[in-house]
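FW: tagging you since you asked about this chain on Friday. Here's the raw sequence from the shared folder, copied in full. Didn't touch anything.
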Amino acid sequence: MKFFSLFLLITSLLTSFAVSAGDTTAADAGTKKLKQALAESMPKVQVTKISATAIDGLYEVIVGSQVVYMSVDARYMIEGDLYDLKTKQNISENAKSVIRLAAIEKLGEDNMLVYRPEKVKDIITVVTDIDCPYCRRLHSEIPDYLKNDVEVRYIFMPLKGASDMRKTVSVWCSDDKQLALDIAKSGGEVEEKSCDNPIKDHLKLARALGVSGTPAIILEDGQLLPGYVPVDKLVAELRK
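HL: got it, structure written out here
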């Protein structure tokens, strides 16, 4: 989950299911044909990337944060994950991981609430809601994450309407964001404040990432872990 593993992940996506040199021309021709077919049949759809898959005639198409599979003439589309049963690999997850990392990078760490240890070995990005019980349980383990040199970056997803949004904005606008969040996560009251803030961008990003509940944990390689994971188990996974 360090830079090298991320490099390998991005490289694997860009090379997309490794076609041989003899097949490269055919794959390129197929992607161009599908791109043209999509432009004609669905001109309003903005395609991010088209890649050949290991299955003849089937192409991976990335549209925003969505990954689908299409025939070269854009007539047939499959929505859902593609698995390689021989390698036990979720092929679609590779593309989704890179999409997630790009979206998080676009938001920027300056627009997150960050708990950083003196020495950073690993980074997790957590989509959180102030009041959800398992979010609070995860937050109570922040000292343990810091002791294990894990940086925790928060993206907020206020799910309970206007009052939840106001509470989240108040935390962000506090002079000491970490202290305000610690108080709010423990059930305390935070002084209501307002300021320019990225919380709506957080909410938009969480939905674009496909997060439907909190907490959700995104690892450095872009893998999404839905739900709470105990700190000891997660740290062990990070250090594999």
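FW: The chain is about 45% helix and 20% strand.
HL: agreed, and The radius of gyration is 21 Å.
FW: great, closing this out.
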